[in-house]
Structure formats: C-alpha cells, structure tokens
Amino acid sequence: TKDFCTDHTSSLKLLDLAVTKVSIALLEGIPSHFPNLQQLHLSDNGLNTLDEWISKLTSLNTLDISLNNFTRLPEILQQSKINALNISDNKIKITEYDIKFPHIETLDIRRNEISDFKELGLLNQIFPNLKNLRINGNPIFDDLSVDEMEVNIIARFENLEFVNGTEISKDERTNAELYFISKANSGSEIDQSRVKSLAIKHKVHVTQSRRTDEDNIMSKLVKLRLNYQ
C-alpha cells in the first residue's frame, strides 16, 4: 500500500490539510508521499512549530500556516525554497535578529502581535527581497489612518511593490521615503541606517536641525511634483 500511495500521490502539486487536526506523524510523512508538492495549506491546526520535514519538500513554493499558534517566525524555513508565506492570524512578535528569508517575496503577516516600529525595520532585514506584504490588523497600526500606515510601511521596505493588496506607485514611494527622512530627528522610532541610505538616494542633506531637514525635504517634494507633470 505504501508503493501504491506513493505512485498515486507523487504528482500532486497542492495539498490542503486545513482544519484537519493533523498529527506530527502525518506531517513527517508528507515529503515521502508528496515529494513534488508546490503548495501546502496547514491553516487552523493548532501548530506552533515546524520541523525538519518541511525542508525536504524541495519543490514547495507556497506555505499557508495561518490561524495557528506561532509566536515567532519558524527558523526552519531558512532551509526551504518557498517564496510565498501566509502566517497571518498567529501570535507573532518580531524579535529575531539573526535569521533571513531571502527567498520569500510574498508575506501575509496580518493580525499578529506586531506593536513596535522597530519590528517593521527587523522585518525588512529578515525578508530583504520582499515584494508583496500584507500586514494590516497588527496593534502597531491601531491608532493610524490607512495613509499613515502605508507611509510607515513603504518607507521601511525598500523592495516592496504591493502593500496590503495595493500596488505602490513611484510617487507614493518617493513621498513616503522623504517623509520618513523628515521624522529622523522627531523622536520617532526611526532606523538611522535606513535614514542615511534614503538621504543618499534622494540627495537630501540630513542635519541636526529638524526644521532644516523638513525644509530641505519639502523643497524636494515640490520639485518632484513639477517633474512628474
């Protein structure tokens, strides 16, 4: 029966085990029975960790572990090749400094427990090639408007093309990054290394005077508007 099962499941590309109370033994058997999986859905199974079996799925590109009990990003995924991760509706805070997922370009991390702007900066470091991010529904955005939320996200993630389902225009990125620079001396939780790289990009001189910075940046905004007309 094992050979029969392998023969008839080896070609499957998608496996949906959402809300099945899947056992650890079954999870560990997935690579041998479904070696060519490209999409795996494990939503709402009470999971809080992933083990070595996930790294054996060498064709996997999409993983859904939403609605589980994860409190941190699964480090084992550094050994996988997935490019899309859905880890929404968990209990995640971003505290890791020494992990990276350069292969992941699409991330859904909505409705977790991200409550600090520093966590956004860490996410940019952990996912350096992120292009598509869904992150609304986290506590950090509770008191922000949609526009304020998007500005704070766009400025911190240098390679993003989509945020919360909306494509980022060139003007939106420029204005978000200039606004981010203007907040450098305002007491906000700002990543100074990010400020420096953006200042070089936009040819803005950042001084100790907040007023000077804002005047400098506003002049850039006016010029940009004229150039885009």
What gap, in angstroms, lies between the N and C termini?
Answer: 68 Å
The order of strands across the largest sheet is 1-2-3-4-5-6-7-8
As a percent range, the share of strand residues is 5-15%
Instruction: Describe the global form.
Output: elongated
The ordered string of helix (H) and strand (E) elements is: HEHEEEEHEHEEHHH
State the helical fraction. 25-40%
Q: How many β-strands, per DSSP?
A: 8
Largest sheet, if any? 8 strands, mixed
Mean pLDDT score: 86
Rg, alpha carbons: 21 Å
The helix count comes to 7
Backbone structural class = alpha/beta
- The unreliable regions are 208-212, 222-229
What does this 3D model show about the protein?
The chain has an eight-stranded mixed beta sheet with strand order 1-2-3-4-5-6-7-8, covered by helices on one side. It is α/β, with parallel strands linked by helices and 229 residues long. The protein is elongated and about 65 Å long. The C terminus is likely disordered. The chain is 36% helix and 10% strand.
